[in-house]
């Protein structure tokens, strides 16, 4: 199955516009604004591999370090056929704001290899990942830039990167990546961390909106983030997961889908669009389906000016990075839809990555309970701070989250004297 089908949007333009709007609200110094609008480093590398059939293919690899002001760059690695350097710049900038919103001592980064992983054998995928890691090795590491999973990458890729980086360094460097397998120092709760953070924000938003159960939730995108959001919500009697979608299609049932049974079907290899539960629905129709809360957990730009006015949910919780374009954001606000922005809603992953990195640096593992408790507390605190600022400035949660983040990064720049 190919992975194409990415909605067309310009995340980099969107990201810079968001910064511009936050700068206006904060009356940020123009020079500081311009500096924050440019990534510190954009690294493009050739990633040649020998394929199983003996031919050589060369992929484009990218790593963008948007900011290192509050700490090392931090962010995931994405494999996707449609990903562009510009999109990675946007994703890296959003990582800077995300780390600042939840107040962890990182800047922001993101990486990608332009490839369709569905076309690669396991061996080809490993050779590509290792070659990419060795090309960027001089510029990454525990104090410089720490990689983690993003779309179509996971624990396996992180273990390969850690191993390649450690070979270059000449000793094991567990803190060089996060989201690695538990057996090599990963954090058990990392796998569900992004989804757990999304669920904390969803519950807060539902509570504030005063929605009564069962609250009907639709989840678009059913990978690391989306599937776990649905599974975490499935046991709650106050919530019904009424719709789910992946790249190939959707299923919908007005009275709720049996999420555990669907999980068993998926694990047995049934495509999501063909599981024998609920009704089939075209993938993008789920975005407009009847529900109270919509949780986009796939690619950027799925909510745009063409469908925003048809969204029936009262709350959108952004599990994905950049799922809502600026125009869609305005249309949703005009129809009274509350949007919990990506840089807050999906920050749970990087929060637990931070805990994993701290544990690796200290060579001192924490219990899963401690990680989960800290995560929940940090997410709830960040939600509260963003909401308070939104009320104070009378702006959307997105603008408030950006203002909080941009102010923190700008203040750090000024404190370090990087900007006279
Ligand atoms: N994995 C993580 O810890 C974090 C991921 N994110 C963001 O969450 C989003 C999803 O990431 P993962 O779950 O890791 O990726 P994944 O690769 O595990 O899953 C992506 C899912 O989206 C589906 N999909 C792709 N295009 C789609 C479309 N147009 N409509 C509906 N479904 C579509 C895929 O079939 C798959 O089910 C991305 O935007 C990523 O940047 C954000 C924070 C952390
Ligand atoms: O866990 C991390 O370091 C970052 C995950 C990520 O790429 C994201 O939050 O978008």
Automatic annotation (TrEMBL):
Xref: SUPFAM superfamilies: Aminoacid dehydrogenase-like, N-terminal domain, NAD(P)-binding Rossmann-fold domains
UniProt-listed InterPro entries: Aminoacid_DH-like_N_sf, Glu/Leu/Phe/Val/Trp_DH, Glu/Leu/Phe/Val/Trp_DH_C, Glu/Leu/Phe/Val/Trp_DH_dimer, Glu_DH, NAD(P)-bd_dom_sf, NAD_bind_Glu_DH
Binding residues annotated for substrate, in chain numbering: 74, 98, 353
SMART domains: ELFV_dehydrog (SM00839)
Keyword Membrane: no
Record GO terms (molecular function): glutamate dehydrogenase (NAD+) activity; nucleotide binding
Site (Important for catalysis): 150
Gene3D superfamilies: Leucine Dehydrogenase, chain A, domain 1, NAD(P)-binding Rossmann-like Domain
Annotated NAD(+) binding sites: 194, 224
Gene Ontology annotations of biological process type: L-glutamate catabolic process
Active site: 110 (proton donor)
Highest taxon, organism lineage: Bacteria
UniProt keyword Nucleus, yes or no: no
Pfam families in UniProt: ELFV_dehydrog, ELFV_dehydrog_N
Protein name listed in UniProt: Glutamate dehydrogenase
């Amino acid at each position: 199955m190919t992975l194409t089908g990415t909605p067309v949007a310009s995340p980099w333009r969107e990201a810079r516009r968001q910064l511009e709007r936050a700068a206006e609200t904060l009356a940020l110094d123009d020079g500081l604004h311009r500096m924050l609008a440019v990534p510190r480093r954009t690294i493009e590398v050739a990633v040649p591999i020998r394929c199983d059939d003996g031919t050589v293919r060369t992929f484009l690899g990218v790593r963008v370090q948007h900011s290192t002001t509050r700490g090392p760059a931090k962010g995931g690695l994405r494999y996707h056929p449609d990903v562009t350097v510009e999109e990675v710049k946007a994703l890296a900038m959003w990582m800077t704001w995300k780390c600042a919103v939840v107040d962890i001592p990182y800047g922001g980064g993101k990486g990608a290899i332009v490839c369709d992983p569905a076309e690669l054998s396991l061996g080809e995928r490993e050779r590509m990942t290792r070659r990419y890691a060795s090309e960027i090795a001089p510029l990454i590491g525990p104090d410089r830039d720490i990689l983690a999973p993003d779309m179509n990458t996971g624990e396996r890729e992180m273990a390969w990167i850690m191993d390649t980086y450690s070979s270059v360094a000449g000793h094991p460097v567990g803190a060089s990546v996060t989201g690695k397998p538990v057996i090599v120092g990963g954090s058990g709760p990392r796998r569900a961390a992004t989804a757990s953070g999304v669920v904390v924000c969803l519950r807060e938003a539902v509570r504030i909106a005063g929605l009564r159960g069962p609250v009907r939730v639709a989840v678009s995108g059913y990978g690391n983030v989306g599937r776990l959001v649905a599974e975490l919500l499935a046991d709650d009697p106050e919530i019904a997961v009424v719709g789910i979608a992946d790249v190939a299609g959707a299923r919908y049932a007005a009275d709720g889908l049996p999420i555990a049974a669907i999980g068993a079907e998926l694990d047995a290899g049934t495509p999501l669009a063909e599981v024998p539960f609920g009704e089939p629905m075209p993938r993008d129709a789920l975005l407009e389906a009847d529900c109270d809360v919509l949780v986009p957990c796939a690619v950027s730009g799925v909510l745009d000016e063409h469908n925003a006015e048809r969204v029936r949910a009262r709350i959108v919780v952004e599990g994905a990075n950049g799922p809502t374009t600026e125009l869609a954001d305005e249309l949703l606000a005009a129809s009274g839809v509350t949007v919990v922005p990506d840089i807050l809603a999906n920050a749970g992953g990087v929060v637990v990555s931070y805990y994993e990195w701290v544990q690796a640096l200290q060579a001192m593992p924490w219990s899963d309970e401690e990680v989960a408790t800290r995560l929940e507390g940090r997410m709830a605190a960040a939600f509260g701070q963003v909401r308070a600022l939104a009320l104070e400035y009378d702006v959307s949660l997105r603008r408030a989250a950006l203002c909080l983040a941009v102010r923190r990064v700008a203040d750090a720049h000024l404190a370090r004297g990087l900007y006279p």
